[in-house]
Amino acid sequence: MRKPCCDKKLTNKGAWTEQEDQKLVDYIRTHGEGCWSDLPKQAGLRRCGKSCRLRWINYLRPDIKRGHFAEDEEDLIIKLHALLGNRWSLIAGRLPGRTDNEVKNYWNTHIRRKLVSMGIDPQNHRLHQTHTLHHHHPPPLENQSSKCLGTKVNTLATKTLDKVKSDGADQEQVLSDAGSSLADETSSCRCELNLDLRIGFPLLSSQYSEQQDQGSLQDMQIDEGEQLPTLPLFL
DNA sequence: AAAGTTGTCAACCGCCCTCCT
DNA sequence: CAGGAGGGCGGTTGACAACTT
């Protein structure tokens, strides 16, 4: 039986009060982050150390960017999710001022639903069988490219995660390499993907939705070698 | 206006990993 | 090497708000 991390009878739970926030902020300003297990006692808080850490990281930290996600942030989340899966902390690490919790919540409440409504499986980023963008130009793109890309991306994702996990691997470099590597890998397929893993892309998801709403994507012709819209990823 | 439903997001839980002894 | 402690993470919950009937 695992020991609880703190005595539940002596700790408060639920929403933090302003006074508690102030105590936590004051303590960290003076002593810095670290040693979360001792912090509550030192700071005079009746909270579990983990709860203090979470409150600081997700809410009180001064460099946190709160509020609505920008379109380019949303695009980046989708791309990184296609590459890394539910590794929210890694994804959040690429979004300055965003926390893993915030990214995870945003994914579950906004992006996931959006992808589903567009006929895309949010887990593997593939189009469902019943949806196609190319009604007038069979065979559908997803049949040609997704099988080809799916395997490559899965392999690449595994490699990427291994690198990120391994000692001394620079996350920035690994992700950058993964983007380039995938571009190389996909060059043999019919269509190319823009996998630039940075904020700022030529076609934003909102524009994509707009075009889809207007039906323009359904009739869109994609010539050989032409670049796909960057989102969503047809993996 | 009230009741029911859905959406959002802060916070908690418990598992896993790493570090230290 | 084994075991414990602490930190980090992803999944889930629950309170509250917003919306619908």
Supply database-style keywords.
235 residues; 51% helix; mainly alpha; Homeodomain-like_sf; elongated; Arc Repressor Mutant, subunit A; single chain; DNA-binding; OLC1v1010652C1
Written overview of the protein:
The C terminus is likely disordered. It contains 9 helices and no strands. With 235 residues, the chain is mostly helical. Helix 7 packs antiparallel against helix 8. It has 2 domains: 53 residues, Arc Repressor Mutant, subunit A, CATH 1.10.10.60; 143 residues, no CATH class. The structure holds a DNA duplex (21 and 21 nucleotides). GO terms for molecular function: transcription cis-regulatory region binding. Keywords: DNA-binding, Nucleus, Repeat, Transcription, Transcription regulation. InterPro entries: Homeodomain-like_sf, Myb_TF_plants, SANT/Myb.
Whole-number count of domains: 2
Query: Shape, please?
Result: elongated
The main pleated sheet reads as: none
Strand proportion, as a percent range, falls in: under 5%
Helical fraction: 40-55%
- Would you list the SSEs in sequence order as H and E? HHHHHHHHH
What is the alpha-carbon Rg in Å?
Answer: 22 Å
Secondary structure tally: strands:
0
Uncertain stretches? 131-155, 183-195, 200-235
Number of helices: 9
Which structural class should the secondary elements be placed in?
Answer: mainly alpha
What is the mean pLDDT?
A: 67
Q: Cα distance, first to last residue?
A: 42 Å
Pfam family, one: Myb_DNA-binding
GO molecular function, one term: transcription cis-regulatory region binding
Keywords: DNA-binding, Nucleus, Repeat, Transcription, Transcription regulation
InterPro entries: Homeodomain-like_sf, Myb_TF_plants, SANT/Myb
